[in-house]
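User: I'm new to structure prediction. If I give you an amino acid sequence, what do you actually give back? Let's try with this one:
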Amino acid sequence: MGKIGLTTTVPMEVIYAAGDIPVDLNNIFITSPEATKRVEEAELAGYPRNVCGWIKGLYSTALLNPEIRRIVAVTQGDCSNTHALMETWAVQGIEIIPFAFPYDRDRDMLRLQMDKFIQAMGTTWEDVNAQKGRLDQIRALVWEMDRLTWEENKVSGFENHLYQVSCSDFNGDPEGFVAAMEAFLAEARQREPFPERLRVRAKTGKRKEIRVGFIGVPPIMPDLYDFLEEQGARVVFNEVQRQFTMPFDTEDIVEQYRRYTYPYSVFERIGDIAREAKKRNLDGIIHYVQSFCYRQIEDMIMRKKLDYPILTLEGENPTGLDARSKIRLESFLEMLRD
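Assistant: Good question. You get back a string of structure tokens that encode the predicted 3D arrangement of the chain. For your 338 residues, that looks like this:
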């Protein structure tokens, strides 16, 4: 069994079917106590200052894990800087396996990409479909955790983020992930609902907790969720992280990755966000954008199409929330209270 690095979520069923272990480099990078050092190492190696912190972190993280000699890099449907990232890894002797999500969600093109991926990994459609059945049982546990977050108020925004984002590779150990998930669910179900963070509506006198949705890529600032709860707000919707759990009722694996909204146009994402925002009774939305990322441009479309108060929050490096970001978050929550 070999470790296969990932630059973002791909059909991991193919990797498990081949007998290998997927490793999401994003998760290794951002959970490292030396995450900031990883960014600095990439800049010392020659990466420009005005390149996304995630890209620089991925570059250094892969080089510091010599057991990862092959990486699946998404060439369409993720960061445009991935192309150059692939080339700098190739110079270091790492084998690159490209994978592309077709922009228009064309089923035939997506199946062709999966065909090529299956051939590159040396496995079969039969084994891949068997892995889908296995992994879907694990995903169902995470869907229940998500429900406990927004419907029963027993799971924090950070816990919701952590377990959902881990579905990009199941920590390379599906059985261990199941055990951890089942233990967490058993404990969470016994909790009292979170003490309500209440606001007073001036005209009616009715009180209502502040429920916030988080959209955009997972944040590079690790302290965001704790800060929001300290200010009396709870994140009850993590958009992209939830997409990593493949929350779709389908037995067709091609259709599963076709419904996965993140790699495609912003309009598929907006439809998903609008449905979940209504279901989860959101008061406002925080749209996280990464510095130097083309997805910042999508913010203007989000604001036009989503009928919710939106705060756009920009992050660059894994150094925590700065004073300006904290002030903006405080002001946004105060506006929601009013």
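You can read the tokens as a compact description of the fold. Here is one thing that stands out. Residues 125-150 form the longest helix (26 residues).
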